[in-house]
Every structure is written in structure tokens, then in C-alpha cells.
Amino acid sequence: MPKLLAIDALHIVRRIYEASDETAPQAKAEAALRHALPSFRRLLTTQAPTHALCVFDFGGSTWRHEIHSHYRENHAPLPSELSERLPKFYEQLASFGLKPVSVPDVAAKDVIATAVLRWLGENRGEAVIASTDKDLHSLITHGALIWDHFKQEWHDRAWVEKKFGVPPERLPDLLALAGDASDNIPGVSKVGLKTAAKLLQSYGSLEQVLAGAGILMNPLGERLRKERAQLDLSRQLVALKTDVRLGVTWQMLRYHAG
After folding, report:
1. 215 pLDDT higher than 90
2. Would you state the pLDDT for residue 258?
3. Sign of the CA dihedral 80, 84, 85, 89?
4. Which of 236, 164, 237, 221 minimizes the C-alpha distance to 188?
5. Around 251, how many Cα atoms within 13 Å sit in the side-chain half-sphere?
6. pTM of the predicted protein model
7. What distance in Å separates the CA atoms of residue 208 and residue 142, rounded to the nearest whole number?
8. Which of 59, 81, 126, 166 makes an SS bond possible with 170, Cβ 3.0 to 4.6 Å?
9. What is the pairing mode between strands 153-155 and 145-148?
10. Which has the closest alpha carbon to 177: 204, 155, 156, 215?
11. DSSP-derived pairing of the beta strands 51-55 and 100-101
12. How many CB atoms lie within 10 A of CB 3?
């Protein structure tokens, strides 16, 4: 059966970079990319896809920054020693059958979401996403599977429910309520993942939570009512853009192991 493997490629590179014992910036970057190549090869061997989408963040601001200027403000930029070596790394990936893709103004997860939903919507076969991005786990609802390349484990519907307390289709609601400090997504004050999960378990969807907030005569209900605009913004920020112009065809993404 045809299988699309969508790779959150920069995530893999950065994980290897951050795990490197090298201290000199240039040596650290070189070592990371040197070790990343066999890591990508191992991923391809493990998954044996017929089609592979290798996505890198384009860099710079995205549509999320336009609606929230502080989005991902706390994230360290990609080290220059690493970014300046990426073009050569793309060539190395291409030499064994991968076509690196990056699209301006959107995040890698938006590119992946668009491709995976299009693939599944056309009933082309299986779709596997190599990433640990929380937002991408909502695509499990549509039939995708998530592969944690570093832990070598599958994330499916049961995994999401055990990890977050809600099914994949409710993940965007959960993340909007709880927010994400690492990405500067505000959420609702004093609402963490456990409280957000309890709310969704009790009421259902985010819309039903907000409807129920009108009769919650406690501090939580007051915050939900008072911070509605903040919650709406958070819901927009965690949403995946699914209409990205990919600039590639399925034929271009065919993978032949060499």
C-alpha cells in the first residue's frame, strides 16, 4: 500500500544538534548534520515509504506572528553556524532521494498538515508523520499516525487519550485552554492541561465549555468569561493551516530506496 512519510525535518536536526557534546559552535553544527544524515536514512528504512515529504521551517515570521507578535518569542533562533550549512545538507538529502521543502510565511507543521490531509482525502494510502509536535497529533483524527523517531514509538488515538486526557479531535481545544508558555500562547489564566482536560471531559467541545462558563459561579468561570478574547486568540494560534501551496506534486515526492 502507498505510504506518505511526512518528516518534521528541522525538529530532527535540532534535537541532534542540542544533544551534541561539541562546544565550539562550528564543530557542533558540523557534527549535528553529520549525525543527522544516518538518522534520516534510518527513519526511511524503518518506515519504508513510497512517498516522502521532508519539511524544513522556512525561517522568519509566519502568519501566527501577524496575529500575535509575541508568538514563540522565547524560542532561540536557529544558530547561524547551523543555518548556513543547511543548503549543503539539503543537497545531501536529495542525493538519497529526499526533496527538502520549505514554504514562506507558514510553519513546517502547516505544510505537513496540508499534505497529509490532502493525501488522506484523496484516499492514496497510509500517512505517517515523524514529529513530536503536539499540534500535529490532532491529525490522528483523520487517520494519520505519529512516529516518535527518537523514542521509536507510535502515537495513536489511545496514546493521545492517555497522555492528554482527551481524544485527538479535542486537542486544539485543550491546547487553546491551557496555552503553551514555550510558544507564548496565552490560554486561560491558571488553567493547565489537567484542568483543561477536565473541562472538556465534562462539557465536550470548547464551545460547550464556554457556554457552560456562563453558569459557573466560581473563579474559573469568571476567568473563562473575562478572558474570552485571549482564548479566541489561543485557538487561532494552535490551529493548523491546511491550505498551503506546497509547490510539489506527489510524483515529485516519490521515494525510491537507494
Report:
1. no
2. 60
3. positive
4. 221
5. 0
6. 0.94
7. 22
8. 166
9. antiparallel
10. 204
11. parallel
12. 17
